[in-house]
Amino acid sequence: MPGIYHANTSHEILRPIAYPSEGTKRDPRPSWYERLRESRRHAAVYSDRSTETTEPKISDKSYRQSNASAHSLDTIDALKLEQTPEKSSSTDAKPWHKHLNPLKWGEVPPVPLERTVCPESTTNPLTKLSFGWMTSLMATGYRRDLKLNDIWIVNPRRNVHSLSEPFQTSFGQRSFGKANKVLLMTLYDTFKRDFWLGGTALLISSICQVLVPFTLRFLLSFVADAYTASVARTPAPDIGRGLGILFGIVFIQLLQSLTTNQFLYHGAMVGAQARAVLTGAIFEKSLKISSRARSAGKGYSDGRITNLMSTDVARIDLAAGMLHMVWAAPMTILACFALLIVNITYSAVVGFSLLVISVPALTIATKSLTAKRKAISTITDSRVSLTTEVLKSIRFVKYNAWETSFLSKLRGLRKKETKLVAKLLTTRNAIYVISISTPVFAAMLSFIVYAMTGHTLGVAPIFSSLALFNAVRIPLSLLPIVIGQFADGMACLKRVEEFLLAEEHQEEINWDMEAKDGIKVRNASFVWEKSASSEDATKEEAPKKSESKPVTEIKMVPPEPEPFSVKNINLSVGRNELIAVIGSVGSGKTSFLSALAGEMRKTHGQVSMGSWSRAFCPQQAWLQNTSVKDNILFGKPMEGWWYDTVKNACCLDADLKQLPAGEDTEIGERGVNLSGGQRQRINLARAIYSKSDIVLLDDPLSAVDVHVRKHMFQHAICGLLQDKCRILATHQLHILSKCDRILWLDNGKIKALDTFLNLMRDDPDFRVLMASTTQEDRPNANGTTRSKQDTDPKPAANDASADAKPGGKLMKEENRGEGHVSWAVYKSYMASSGHLLLGLIPVILLVLAQTANAVMGLWLGFWTSNRFALSRNNYVAIYVCLAISQALLMFLFTASISNLGSISSRRTLDRATEKVMRSPQSFHDTQPLGRIINRLSRDADVVDNQLPDALRMFLYTMVLITSVIAMLIYYFPYFAAALVPIILLFLFATSYFRVTARSLKRHEAVLRGKMFARFSESVSGVSTIRAFGLQTTFVHSVRSAIDDMNAAYYLTNSSQRWLATRLDLVANTMVLTVGLLVVAKRNVLHPSISGVLLAYLLSMIHVIQLVVRQLAEVQNGMNSMERLHEYATALETEPEHQSNAISVTEAWPLRGEITFSNIHMRYRPHLPFVLDDLNLKFRGGEKIGIVGRTGAGKSSITTALFRIVELSKGSICVDGFDISRLALKDLRKRVAIITQDPTLFKGTIRSNLDPFDEYSDLDLHLRKTGLLDEERREKLQLDTAVEESGANFSLGQRQLLALARALLKDSKIMVCDEATSSVDLETDAKVQRVMSEAFKGKTVITIAHRLTTILHYDRVCVMDKGKIVEVGAPLELWERGGEFRRMCEGNGVVRESFGRK
């Protein structure tokens, strides 16, 4: 079984234990383990025992200590204890006080071997009503920490698949008719059964809520009659009358309890299920949404889609829970008014008029929250989108030392966000205070009018009315909250609805399985969609104009260009034909392939494909965060022989042997632990393995070495795919002679289409083009062609793969806290507000407010009994003062909570974001991006909005309960004795609940993080998923993750209701106890005091379960705070400043001289050195190329120079300064780098060239014009929009812009990592000339795959296994005949090549 292993004592090899099946008779003889245990008791020498297949019983922690001969026993103990740690502690090992808890006596429940379906659907109605089906899980969670297998699987009726079918059907029908509130009515159609079950339960609960205080009148009448009879010494009423009324009140309370819990449960289930189905719907829509809808003008970026799924859907979930209160609260208020008329006649009209006036006023005020929430959502979207984009490119950000600048932008957005959140919470708190104070003032006015009109303040009508006014307080206080949540929910529903109704991707392709050709295009034109909000959006090669103002001070900007289009294409591709697509950067190669992949809109003509099966290899390979094997299989079943054949054809065999777990090695997000060549080869292997009849290849040969390129072209593209319809976009002109035909594109049009021989014969431009290619495909001097494979393992060149664990798993499991939330988290939350003592201010204000409230009730009692013999006006004056002071203090309390919470939240998230940005690259390589974004968005939203509310309600309910209990003990000292068992029951139930609920919530948080990661990863690969036609596979994958998350989420809600049902029994026990005391002391205690106590006690009953619920909410909020706190405090960061740090001038470095002295570097302490005793000196102004097979340590030189990883030994000096003593910012800002994978951010070309406004527009134009020809310069202006990740530019264009950005930096030291791998040879030649001119006098370090780019360099350094093999001038090394000569021969470089520049 998973996680349980059996150890062989001879070889200490772990193998799975076979559990005996049911009915299997166990061997009566003691096992080797039991015999070994017995021998330990009597001897100091232990001997090995024979093994058996039965599961060893482990119950004593002490037996983990062993000698050498018992090593196998230790292994089993350790593994078994990891599986069921509770069994590791014997009874004797526990402290004595642990034995006093009877709930922990007996055997600890074992961890189930597999997950089972939730038993709710199969249990009886009584158990459902009491939530008894949760008891077994609660008991298990109390005895030991819950494991994943303890979490029941979601009921089939509630899984996303079952819910999505009726949802999609209803949504389709309603959206087709263009009805209003389509999404709202669709959710109603889907969940109306649970919705109205909860509504019916609330109706019964509301009736009971009104009946209880009215029935109190009869009990108080009995008490008053008895007291009067006692004073007058007349016959007293029968005690049976009082007991009967009391038992009736208790019964109504019990009925209210059961129905209230059913209402809350069904409401929570409706919200949770709505969240699940909307999350699934948003993901499905993200696979269908068109380019127009996703373009920058509309703004449906990956970050915004993720925010819809996280924040907006969560608010819809919250709003659905209490939605029925919108109609139930007014109904309850009206019922209370009717009974108040009965109690205090027309005097109730005065007070009720105040209530009537307050409700619309509160509603109007609440509606203002919608506008505030909309403004907050806009800023939150911007913050989350920017955070997502920066973290996606965090390595590039670190290379350029841009953390501080981006953090400044994020802090600015966050400051605006928290200011708006504080205003929203303050408004909401004011509404809350008014809502809970209005009944107080209403009662005050009614009683004053009642007294002023000549009525005697009788105990029964007055305190029954007080109880009714208190009953009104609950619906009245909830009503604005629910309206606010409803307003939030409606705003979020509208946002989600707009997304779900957005324009969908339409693939206008005719599928003809009987067609002769694989692809047939007739007079077809394609265009990238324009933005829905702006007419200047483009896609891919086409630039896009933003809405910012043109740079008129430099030159007049030409008219806004039309979106890039591919025009008048006429082409037929045979079912086994290979066509090469060539052209310069921006000519339309990627657009043409994207059009055939269905990503562009067809404006004219016809496209037919002869097969449903189509594979697409995009320029930038999209890889999943899963194993290498699963990325190749890509949802297809495993076929061993075919899989092995594909691996060999794509040169992956040697790579897999060197990866930590071979083909099972986990690939990091975005392939961070693989080289560019490995990513492209896995990308190609995926397309081949799919056995698709049509294969679209977008330059898969650009990022690999020449000999690997030859092998892949010969064995993969022309081998395994020889009977497929293939279109290959490429810059590798030397392979054109092996293609069936060549399609030459220029500015989106066909320039030429013919065979290689015909073009060479008839087209002079083509002959000129071919003359510029290298001789890499020509034979070597000895007549042979080098064919040794590129191993390309990259463990030595990438710190991400170094982080891979021995089992091949790269991504670390998310930390799931054990036990209660640390007090350090609470302390940090309070301290972040400014000072720990500031946390006492809300508590002091609340105690004063509740004291005023309690005294006000007692004062009413004194007034009715005329205890102090004051005038009526004096009683009224003091009563009014107490009411006003209570309201004022309550507002100050809520305002202080919101203000301090807002400050704390902002500071905590700022620290967490900064720590994440400044954490080492190894952290980002081993953490899914979705997990990080989950904490910085969803958890931040909880701490912003939900935690202050939960804290406010928890403190309020706690102080309220404490004040009522204090009054009860004061007047009924014997109640203290009865209170002891009641408190014990309360504490037992609460602790029972808290342990399990905390564990469930943490499981839910971890599973939610996994769902976020899967969601965000899949959204970023939509084009690949669509091209392969795997939408259904990924929808099922995300739905499975949602169900896993909801399994814990549903149980969290159920556990709250389980507790509330039992706490209500405790509360009703208190009512019964106090009622019996009141009846028993009816002759002694004044009825006015009994009225005060019973009125406050009945109002407190509903608060008892609320206090635990709010405690759970506080803990849930603190779980989010804990996760942010972990990032804010526990994350390791790169060393910013050292104690012995040295400062450098602005002009440093002056010479650009770099010295590597005795360098030893490894990525992790247990790994081998990737740079081993490296000694190398780069002279100032020297151009040096670094070559070697991938994995030789070339990229590690860059890693060491930028201090991405600190050295184990040795030093690197730049102009004589040891860089280990420099601040990272000083170092990285003064060294420029051009990476192989260019990074662009959403914005404009200007903002990408100069993100922080450090240069003038003139500088920007000069840098840009040096790299672009006249035609492209007309299209690309500084204000041309750049979409997220530069999606509206080809890879070649992105490389040119990245190069322009590096040129702008004008550093003395330049590092180039194959900066022109995705541009055509003509553009490459231009770039090399520009670089040669711009880099004069600068130190240039180039990591090269194309040896032709470094033949004119001053020196070349050849590396292998982290060591220098040889170094010298290129021609000198070639003539020497060493490793560099062999590499040149393998790349087609001959002696004549060294004369070229």
Automatic annotation (TrEMBL):
Subcellular location: Membrane
Membrane-related topology note: Multi-pass membrane protein
Amino acid composition bias (Basic and acidic residues), ranges on this chain: 49-63, 532-552
Keywords: ATP-binding, Hydrolase, Membrane, Nucleotide-binding, Transmembrane, Transmembrane helix, Transport
A Gene Ontology cellular-component term: membrane
Domain ABC transporter: 551-772, 1154-1386
Family annotation (InterPro entries): AAA+_ATPase (IPR003593), ABC1_TM_dom (IPR011527), ABC1_TM_sf (IPR036640), ABC_transporter-like_ATP-bd (IPR003439), ABC_transporter-like_CS (IPR017871), ABC_transporter_C-like (IPR050173), P-loop_NTPase (IPR027417)
One GO MF term: ATP binding
Residues covered by region (Disordered): 40-70, 532-557, 772-815
Membrane-spanning residues: 195-219, 239-259, 318-340, 346-365, 429-450, 836-863, 875-897, 953-972, 978-997, 1058-1080, 1092-1112
Cited SMART domains: AAA (SM00382)
Ranges of residues in domain ABC transmembrane type-1: 196-488, 843-1116
UniProt entry tagged with the keyword Transport: yes
Name under which the protein is recorded: P-loop containing nucleoside triphosphate hydrolase protein
Species for this entry: Lophiotrema nucula
Taxonomic lineage of the native organism: Eukaryota, Fungi, Dikarya, Ascomycota, Pezizomycotina
